[in-house]
Amino acid sequence: VEISTLGPLLGTIFISLLPYLDNFSAEVSTIFNFLVQQEELSPYLKDLFFVPDHPAIRNVYVTIQQAMDSNRPFLDILKEALHNVTHENVDIRVEALRHLKELLQINYRPLQDCVVGAEGLDPVLTELVETLIMGCSDTNLSVALTCAECLGEIGAIDPGNLPRKSFNMEKTIFQFSVKSELFALAALNELVRAFQTCRDTHNMDAFSLAIQELLKAFKIAPSGKSVKKHLWDSFPENVQEVMKPLLTSKYKISVSRTSIPHPVYGSSFGRSLCEWGFQWANKLIPLMKDKFAASLFESCLFGMKLDAQTLMFFLPYVV
Fold it and tell me: Residue 78: left (phi > 0), alpha (psi -120 to 50), or beta?
């Protein structure tokens, strides 16, 4: 793996290893020290704001703090915090929101100047408020509660100062054919996103299986002999690094399908929207006449069960 490709994953690596710091301090410290000393990763050190001042990684902590320039304008700091608040990893989101809450408390005066002193809200603050409002409905309770606490720190804002979000048609184009290259790109990006948010190896296996099968079904590979090499090249490097081992992996579905009644929302098979949606997909996939689509969705089924966003991506195609 090229060191530079670890940049976008640096936060995820650190947040995953921190729980082992007390019991395996030497090993974790060695990894952390190696990573923060890599020049290619220096632009990403500011994403490690959550790393604590622990005796075993004191040098790492100091290096990270030096990379986080606290003398920048308040809105620049806020913009950076906003980037972390929307991180795909839920643990980083929680830490980012706690960090944001502290920032809002420490910078109360400049915050109020932005809220009250200007005729209109700065776009950064507008985006922050909208992100926090959406975060209040997050399925993770810690995320939802901390979003609400951050909104409390910001205080009351005139709704008239919040511009309506424009609807971007380019980002919402629905690919009607599951055999299209654009569907393959969108589906793989979604599965890689979900894979990167996993905290459990069993969940990672489920998304690994789905990615493996999609790469195989669409014949996507980095090889010059592959007719779909252009698709591979269209993915960012960090996505390619996730998918590369799955070009030769041998994951198989080992769980047999269980027959259930037609799922009714609110019943024991549909106690929540996500559970109902998954059971609905589980019921519909075997009924598909298109074997290519059925096989594709079958490999993604367990991923749909584990991640609500993945479910909402695939469910319209299943239906």
Answer: alpha
